[in-house]
Structures are given as structure tokens and as C-alpha cells.
Backbone:
């Protein structure tokens, strides 16, 4: 039976981050991944030789000394991750279709504020107050600055008030409230349910900069593989914990893997969905209250994705024609609460992402779209699996693909004859390929007053991290790993590591 200092369960961006943090300080680390390849939603797939991102499309936090910038520097992979900033005036656009209104979000916090005042000059005071509140929350959130050493997460008053409540106090302008709440699509929770603090923590980096990444999410995976090889981190794909044995004094003595191999460790850190953690840990050592809390977590929205390519012309011509990085977000209504509700009928919110992807010496004009979806819409087919879906599901999926394609070419009429859909994925597809409980895009809902599973678990030497622990998305998932990593390493070793990588 091989023994490790740390076993990390789940190889998404959180698991990879935590494995590197621990490996960098001399820990022996085993990374377990249930799927046949690592990376989770950061992974790419190829169709006709063209690369497409599974779940990662863009992120904030890439500005100098931003939290993502700092985390990559600490992990010593910053030179391997090359951001492609979305900087053109019309490259990050919100469209509220019922009002026929378009809003371009400029790069840079002050520039974003100034542009919003141009759109809503009569709401200048409300906008100043909103953006100052967002900034204030993030400056007071100690976990968003790696250079600070918090003794706790330090909940703020804004953690106990919803985004809706704040916006209602600031303005009566329906359209403005819709635009300011539009980033709800980046965490999949209604403005009526998300705390203003968590909305601010997700939005702040997106207001400062938005970037795609050269090579997409796969760039993070390649960087991790390179660093993990240098650090001697052991990776086991297609492997999971099957049983926890020899539990004494609330500590698991050995883990039996699905391969039959037995391993042991000082610490085991789960970066998977909380419900998966409950399935793995011995139930008789978990309190009813803990299990009830985990089972009470609701799922965030799902995503129905369409992956396509604009064909015709040489790659150089595509560049010259302006096929650069861009994000177009279509909102049928300004009522974001309605758009993030399973009962909403009609068109859903749709985000269209353009990128120029290189593979095998060729450039491909990739245009993919993510439409809000809900697990409730697929209830009739929840027991089916990939390759075994019934005809009714196939028909539903094809109809939805055609509708999304119509919306894409309506937004980009110049691609009407050249845009080809290559593949599509529903929440069920994400559920089965990514081994998530229900295919939700952002794990559990982050709701006002909710206490997520982060840090120590009921058994000794057990910890939880991941996007369901702190905040969704790349930045939130990585931040959770830094918080848990600090608990494991201790304040002094953690501070020393940051000083080595970031300076004083």
C-alpha cells in the first residue's frame, strides 16, 4: 500500500491548482480523476481537426496584479498561459432584444464606468454608487488578494443582501438593472438569490479585463502537466475512491480505489461536487445535519452549447476580416430573474463567443454559443447515457441546435452561408462526460446566507475545495484551492511561498 502526504480527488482547475501548491512545497501528491483524461471542463475536444473548448471560454482577473495573474505566478505557470484580451469597443457587447438596445463593455474599470454613464446619463449617481460598492466589496474580501494573510474568510454585510435588493435601492430603471445584473450568466444564479458580495467578486475582474486564452482551457492542462512532471506529482486517470476503510478516531486508514489498489495519506482533498463527497465518505461518520445541508444545495443553471466554425477563405483573410476574439451576449428581456428560471418559455439568454484557433498549422474561425438551459428540461431523459439517447431527445436537441443557429446568423448575417455547426452538447452531455451529478454549469447555486462546503470536512484530514466551495469559474475554483492550501501548509509556509513568487 503506497502512502502519500496528500491525495487530491478531481482534476479540474481546482484540483490541478491544489496539487501544484502542495507539490511545490515538497509534498508527495496523488491526483485522482474519474474520467479517462484530466482537466474537467477545462479540456478541449476536436472535430474535423478543429479544437473546441468544453466549458472554458473566457475569464476576468488577468490584469496585472489581479488575483488570476497572481495565482498563475505563484504556481509558476504564468509564462505558459497567454491571455488574448478582448479589447475592441464592440467586442464585448450586451444586447437586450426586447428593447432593441446594445451596450458595449469597455476594458478597464474606469472606462467601463464612463461608458455606462454615456448609456444612462440620468443614472450617473446610481452608477457611481454601484461600482464603488462592487470595488469596496472586493477590496475588503481578503481572499481576493494573495498578498494578505486572512485569519478567516471574513464575511461582509454585503454577503447577507441580494443583488436585487441593492439594485432596487439604487435605481428604478428596469433596463439598467438588467445590464448591471447581466453577469449573473457567469455564475448561473438569479439576482434575487445571489448575494451582492458574490456578484461583486465575480464581476469585478470582468469589469477590469476580459480575456480568452491561447489554446483555450487546454493551455492550463498542458501547463499543469509540465509542472506536475517536474514536481513528481502522480496522476491516475480513470480512477476513483471506491471505499474508505479502517476509520479510527475519525480518520480514514486506507482508501480502496476502483482498480483494487489500496492507498493511504495524511490528507485527502476533494475538489468535486459536494454530493459526490457524501457518496464517497463513510455515511456512519457523517452527521445527519451535514448530509442534509449538502443535499439541500440547489444546482446552478445548465448550458446547451453549440460548437461551430466559419468556413471559406484563407486563415489570413479571416484575420484581416476582423475575426478576432469577441463575446456577444443576447438577452431576450432585461428581467434576468426570469431568464434564470426553469419556467421561462421562449428564447433563452445566449452568449456567442468568437475565437481564432490554430491546429496542425491551420487557423480556424471558431464560433460557439452557450444558451441557458436547465436540468428540469431533460427530466424525461435523465436515465439515458451518451450513445443511448432515445429518439425524442435527439429530435429535441436538433430542433434546439437549429434555433440557436438561426439566432447566431441573425446576429452575424455575414456568416449565414459560411457558418457550420460541428457539434452540440446539452446538460446531459456535460453530466456524462464531466461526471457531474446533473450537468449544472457552475456547480451549486451560491445563494444569500448559504454556507458552502469549504475547508475541513467532518473526518480528520479531509478537506473540500472547488467551484462549489467558494465562487464559480476559473478564478473562484482556484481561489478555493489557495485557501485550503494555506490551511494545509500553515500560515508561515504559505506566506513564505507567496513571498518567494510575488515578492513583498
Residues:
Amino acid at each position: 500500500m503506497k502512502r502519500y502526504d496528500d491525495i487530491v480527488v478531481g482534476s479540474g482547475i481546482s484540483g490541478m491548482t491544489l496539487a501544484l501548491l502542495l507539490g511545490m512545497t515538497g509534498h508527495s501528491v496523488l491526483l485522482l480523476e474519474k474520467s479517462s483524461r484530466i482537466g474537467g471542463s477545462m479540456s478541449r475536444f476536436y472535430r474535423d481537426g478543429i479544437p473546441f473548448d468544453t466549458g472554458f471560454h473566457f475569464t476576468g482577473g488577468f490584469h496585472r496584479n489581479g488575483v488570476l495573474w497572481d495565482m498563475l505566478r505563484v504556481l509558476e505557470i504564468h509564462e505558459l498561459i497567454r491571455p488574448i484580451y478582448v479589447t475592441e469597443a464592440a467586442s464585448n457587447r450586451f444586447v437586450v432584444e426586447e428593447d432593441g438596445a446594445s451596450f458595449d463593455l469597455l476594458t478597464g474599470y474606469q472606462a467601463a464606468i464612463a461608458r455606462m454613464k454615456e448609456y444612462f446619463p440620468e443614472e450617473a449617481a446610481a452608477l457611481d454608487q454601484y461600482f464603488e460598492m462592487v470595488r469596496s466589496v472586493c477590496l475588503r474580501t481578503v481572499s481576493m488578494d494573495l498578498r494578505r494573510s486572512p485569519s478567516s474568510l471574513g464575511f461582509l454585510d454585503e454577503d447577507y443582501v441580494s443583488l436585487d435588493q441593492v439594485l432596487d435601492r439604487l435605481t428604478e430603471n428596469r433596463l439598467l438593472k438588467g445590464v448591471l445584473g447581466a453577469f449573473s450568466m457567469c455564475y448561473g444564479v438569479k439576482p434575487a438569490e445571489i448575494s451582492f458580495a458574490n456578484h461583486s467578486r465575480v464581476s469585478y475582474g470582468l469589469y477590469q479585463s476580459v480575456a480568452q486564452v491561447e489554446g483555450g482551457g487546454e493551455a492550463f492542462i498542458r501547463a499543469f502537466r509540465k509542472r506536475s512532471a517536474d514536481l513528481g506529482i502522480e496522476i491516475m486517470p480513470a480512477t476513483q475512491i471506491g471505499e474508505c476503510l479502517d476509520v479510527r478516531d475519525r480518520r480514514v486508514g486506507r482508501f480502496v480505489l476502483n482498480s483494487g489498489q489500496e492507498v493511504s495519506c495524511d490528507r485527502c482533498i476533494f475538489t468535486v461536487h459536494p454530493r459526490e463527497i457524501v457518496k464517497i465518505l463513510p455515511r456512519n461518520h457523517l452527521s445527519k445535519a451535514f448530509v442534509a445541508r449538502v443535499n439541500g444545495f440547489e444546482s446552478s443553471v445548465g448550458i446547451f452549447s453549440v460548437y461551430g466554425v466559419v468556413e471559406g477563405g484563407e486563415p489570413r483573410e479571416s484575420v484581416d476580416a476582423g475575426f478576432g476574439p469577441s463575446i456577444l451576449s443576447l438577452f431576450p428581456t432585461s428581467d434576468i430573474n426570469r431568464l434564470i428560471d426553469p419556467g421561462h418559455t421562449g428564447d433563452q439568454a445566449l452568449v456567442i463567443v468568437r475565437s481564432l484557433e490554430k491546429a496542425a498549422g491551420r487557423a480556424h474561425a471558431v464560433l460557439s454559443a452557450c444558451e441557458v438551459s436547465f436540468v428540469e428540461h431533460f427530466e424525461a431523459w435523465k436515465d439515458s447515457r451518451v450513445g443511448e439517447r432515445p429518439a425524442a431527445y435527439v429530435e429535441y436537441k436538433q430542433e434546439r441546435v437549429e434555433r440557436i443557429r438561426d439566432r447566431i446568423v441573425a446576429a452575424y448575417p455575414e456568416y449565414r452561408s459560411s457558418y457550420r455547426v460541428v457539434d452540440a452538447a446539452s446538460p446531459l452531455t456535460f453530466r456524462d462526460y464531466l461526471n457531474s451529478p446533473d450537468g449544472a454549469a457552475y456547480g451549486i447555486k451560491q445563494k444569500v446566507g448559504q454556507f458552502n462546503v469549504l475547508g475541513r470536512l467532518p473526518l480528520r484530514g479531509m478537506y473540500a475545495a472547488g467551484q462549489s466551495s467558494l465562487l464559480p469559474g476559473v478564478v473562484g475554483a482556484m481561489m478555493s484551492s489557495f485557501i485550503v492550501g494555506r490551511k494545509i501548509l500553515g500560515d508561515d509556509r504559505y506566506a513564505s511561498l507567496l513571498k518567494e513568487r510575488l515578492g513583498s
